[in-house]
Amino acid sequence: MTEGPLLWYLNRSSGVVGLVLLTAATVLGVLATGGRPGTRIPRFVLQSVHRNVALIAVVTVTAHVVAAVVDEFVDIRWWHALVPFTGRYERLWLGLGATAVQLLLVVTVSSLLRHRLRRRTWYSLHQSVYLLWLTSVLHGVGMGTDLADRWWPVTVGCVAAVTTAGTWRLARALLESTALDDRAARSRAEDDAMTMPIRRLP
């Protein structure tokens, strides 16, 4: 059976769950890299949960892609899901979904090869996760119009979660940078005071 309500529900549900999991993995990644050692939740715990959630997200997105290709209700071929903007059906939104798949491959492969890559190279590739998340949101908004009335709170919640996590990380980095500058200024002032020549009394 290549057409019917089962594939339709599998396609839609896996898309929604995949977006939620990608959002959770993104937020956990922000918290894992932006936190300090010694906090209530150790950094290695956040990183472990982040990797496991990301793995489940990859499996869910794969199921979403397979269901979309197998379902013959609309004409989506396998290369439409992998090569951006090659399909005729909803070319823009489907193309964004294919772009998200490509970015997911980049993030997944670079993570598997992390120990073989330079840290700067891996970090640069891993930053594409934010573009992956954004294209996934736009793909869901454009392609999921038939569920827009029921599922828009999920999309809003995902956007709010990533926006809040990103704002927290930027604010924390700014505060830490300011604190480092203050400590450096105090250290220079103390060094100047120590090396200042002592004036002789008259």
Q: Explain this structure to me?
A:
The model has no long low-confidence stretch (mean pLDDT 83). The protein has helices spanning 5-34, 43-70, 78-82, 91-112, 119-126, 129-143, 148-195. Helix 1 packs antiparallel against helix 2 (43-70). The radius of gyration is 24 Å and the shape is elongated. With 202 residues, it is an all-alpha fold.
List keywords for this structure.
elongated
Average pLDDT works out at: 83
Helix/strand/pairing category: mainly alpha
Q: Characterize the biggest β-sheet.
A: none
Count of strand segments = 0
Distance between the termini: 104 Å
**Helical content (DSSP H or I, runs of 4+):** over 70%
User: What is the overall number of helices?
Assistant: 7
Helix-strand pattern: HHHHHHH
Question: What is the compact description of this entry?
Answer:
By secondary structure, this protein is mostly helical.
Task: Describe the protein's topology.
Elements: H1 5-34, H2 43-70, H3 78-82, H4 91-112, H5 119-126, H6 129-143, H7 148-195
